[in-house]
Design goal:
Number of strands: 0
Number of helices: 14
Order of helices and strands: HHHHHHHHHHHHHH
Shape: globular
Largest sheet: none
Distance between the termini: 11 Å
Length: about 350
């Protein structure tokens, strides 16, 4: 197996984790939304990253301390930007469902998060530097088109199904609220990739400290996630205070804690997969975020079908869904071949 193929598979693994992480939330009982959200992000964003770093990056705290202050602040700052997007991401899923919500959110997030970082870093020429790079770029554009087609299938479903049918699969379905949350989630969530791609000096220091190329990005993941946690935790605590739900934490529930731990553990794997796969792509590592997002859409589509969110739709909607899914697969294959 070539390095590029392995890298793409790691990105796809990240997308799978991103698509599936919120599924265990359906098992949470008796806790307010903000309570289980704070519990899961504490596990996924605060506890998991340093544990991963402890096993993969020697002297990780020295590595981070050696970085210029502006690099650390930038990574944390972009993480805070992503934190705003993450808050609205959960609401987007609440109002649109896993299938349609993940599709629209990932499409906008991928469009902003994939192509802008190379441009901001003055590396736009790498997008068209070689025939392989052109094929990869075509694959990126194709994946965005696939996301759009799946989104059109979602809009078609919205037009044809009565509200009562939508609410059978998605209890709080509200397309207008969901669309607003999608806009906020997509724009702000792109901050994740800006942070992940903006700390090369930290990755270099990790390798010099003894980390392998595969794991060199883990300190960057940790810095970005901790920035996001500061925003999300503040919001959750405010909601606990306003809604009087602090008592939820005193309701010891092994089931709820297990579900939240599952959400957090699965969730962090999407960015572990992304950063582990990037060294295998060399100068084409900028596509990592796009592949992760496209994979999230691909797997979210199947998840939505499995959960009954597309049940009862007409033939046109089904064909749009199939066409978008096949376009995503073809784009994934093109990016894999172009990256060889």
């Amino acid at each position: 197996m070539s390095d590029s193929t392995l890298g793409m598979l790691l990105f796809a693994f990240g997308g799978f984790a991103g698509a599936m992480n919120l599924v265990p939330s359906k098992g949470v009982r008796g806790w307010a939304y903000e309570t289980w959200w704070l519990t899961y992000i504490t596990i996924g964003l605060v506890i998991c990253p340093p544990i991963i770093c402890a096993f993969t990056v020697p002297h990780v705290w020295d590595v981070i301390a050696s970085a210029p202050a502006h690099v650390v602040c930038r990574s944390v700052g972009f993480g805070m930007m992503w934190g705003v997007g993450a808050l609205t991401w959960g609401l987007m899923i609440r109002y649109l469902g896993f299938g349609l919500g993940q599709t629209l959110g990932c499409g906008l997030c991928a469009a902003l998060g994939v192509l802008l970082p190379p441009i901001f870093k003055g590396e736009a020429a790498t997008l068209v530097a070689t025939p392989g790079a052109l094929v990869v770029l075509a694959g990126v554009i194709g994946s965005l088109a696939g996301i759009v087609v799946v989104g059109l299938a979602g809009k078609s479903k919205e037009d044809e199904l009565p509200l009562e049918e939508k609410k059978k699969a998605i209890a709080d379905f509200d397309f207008k609220k969901g669309l607003l949350m999608t806009l906020l989630a997509g724009v702000f969530s792109a901050g994740m990739n800006y942070g992940l791609q903006g700390a090369d000096v930290v990755e270099k220091a990790a390798v010099e400290a003894g980390a392998s190329d595969t794991w060199r990005g883990m300190p960057v993941v940790m810095m970005v996630l901790w920035g996001g946690y500061a925003v999300e935790a503040s919001w959750c605590l405010f909601r606990n205070w306003r809604n009087g739900t602090f008592g939820d934490y005193l309701k010891f529930s092994p089931r709820n804690y297990l579900c939240c731990a599952s959400i957090g553990g699965i969730w962090v794997m999407q960015f572990v997969g992304q950063k582990c796969g990037e060294p295998l792509l060399g100068n084409l590592k900028y596509i990592s975020f796009g592949v992760v997002m496209a994979s999230r859409v691909f797997f979210s589509t199947f998840l939505g079908v499995f959960l009954g969110e597309w049940k009862g739709v007409c033939a046109r909607t089904r064909w749009l869904l199939v066409a978008g899914t096949l376009l995503l697969l073809a784009s994934f294959a093109a990016m894999t071949l172009g990256a060889r």
